[in-house]
Amino acid sequence: MRQKVYAGHAVRRLREKLGLKQSELAQRLAVSPSYINQIESNQRPLTASVLIAISRTFDVDITSFGAEDLDRLVADLREAAADPLFRDLDLGLQDVKAVANLSPAFAHAFLRMHVALRRTAEWRASLDDMLTAGIAPGDEAKLVPYEEVRDYFHYVDNYVDSLDRAAEAVALTLGILEGVPPEQAFTAHLAARHQVSVETGHADPAEPLSSFDPRTRRLVLSGTLAPASRAFRLAATIAQLEHAELVASTVASARFRGQTAAEICKLALYNYFAGALMLPYRRFLDLARARRHDLDRLVLDSGASLEQVFHRLSTLQRPGAKGVPFYFAKVDRAGNITKRHSATRFQFARHGGACAAWNVHEAFEMAGRTLVQVGEMPDGVRYICLARSVSIPATRHGQPARAYALGLGCEASFAHDIVYADGLDLKAAPVAKLGVSCRICPRRDCDLRAFPPLDRDIRIDENVRDIVPFTFS
């Protein structure tokens, strides 16, 4: 049974943007004013006929009225509400759903304040350590802009339509859609249109991966880069030279609180364009469907790296031509999530480590293999979870190799589109009980729990010992 769509906030925002009263909107949609009032107050869901009427009357993409963003917002609010600061308020699931549904803008403001509160508390708690280590106290606050940018991509489903379409247009011009090798096409384009000369530098790890001098029009790529990475750096330079205004307007529309976040997002958008130029939307979507998302085949057929393929799969959410909605994550050996994007309801922890039962951690022990896991989140939604480790060899003696685990997953309802689900009996297969993080996970029977949830009382029995040395209410 499909989920009902309660999107009163979206309807109200559209009406206010158009400058219409509820009665005027009702007249345009051929419904009663009381019905519009009930929709805006989330007393009644949007029906298919009303969604279609809104789309036809106001030329609005009806996918913007979906429930996925609210699902993410509810999960983020639940994590924030688990803070001990709010324990006596007894904020339940229905409370956070009501806030997310009726005023998502207020919910986002609350999350921003909670992040600021946590950062202040962490800064105070670690002040002595930082002073002892010689770290300036203000440096801790520099982490916040990165989180702000990650949230921006999180809430746009990791898809930026204007940039994606612009990249596809350039790819068509350069012949990428006809199979012209990207590195060759990008190098020739930079020379012909921008008089940029491309050189390969020494394989010196002390030098930057790429360096562009606008004065001399000289782009130097590190000799340590693999072919797919060279092509990516060339594509990012094309984005910088040709689409700086589009990127700037996109950053401006995001309304970041500080210049640092804006600059971080600008670089991320250049990289987004580069990925979209290397793997043009329609061509890659068709290829992914034809190969049923076989990762090794996609790497072989596209010439992209495994990480580039993982990331691009998570961005295929163009209205009217959507691919399978995937989450994508990049995790280091310490369990830190260094990249996270999601077009699904799968939730990543905003604070703390990832769930220990998630197969990305196991991927480090299975180099070269794609691990397949059926995972279930606390909300009961099941996912096909894929994980694969990648390593970057050391370039000099004494330098450690860098290793990461890449995670990619979709809801189990899309199993028929994924080659990795072939032969997998979803009804009989073992199911990993996943959670967002231990701090908000409600599971009482997890042997991998690192610490108790923040919104529960701990119970200790001195006469009973188990793997987890406590229970909770």
TrEMBL record:
One of its GO terms (cellular component) is cytosol. InterPro entries: Cro/C1-type_HTH (IPR001387), HTH_RamB (IPR026281), IrrE_HExxH (IPR010359), Lambda_DNA-bd_dom_sf (IPR010982), ScfR_C (IPR018653), TransReg_Diox_bact_type (IPR050807). CDD domains: HTH_XRE. Residues 11-65 form the HTH cro/C1-type domain. Signal peptide: none annotated. Gene3D superfamilies: lambda repressor-like DNA-binding domains. PROSITE patterns: HTH_CROC1 (PS50943). One of its GO terms (molecular function) is DNA-binding transcription factor activity. Pfam families: HTH_3 (PF01381), Peptidase_M78 (PF06114), ScfRs (PF09856). Belongs to the short-chain fatty acyl-CoA assimilation regulator (ScfR) family. PANTHER family: HTH-TYPE TRANSCRIPTIONAL REGULATOR (PTHR46797), HTH-TYPE TRANSCRIPTIONAL REGULATOR SUTR (PTHR46797:SF23). This is XRE family transcriptional regulator. It comes from Xanthobacter tagetidis.
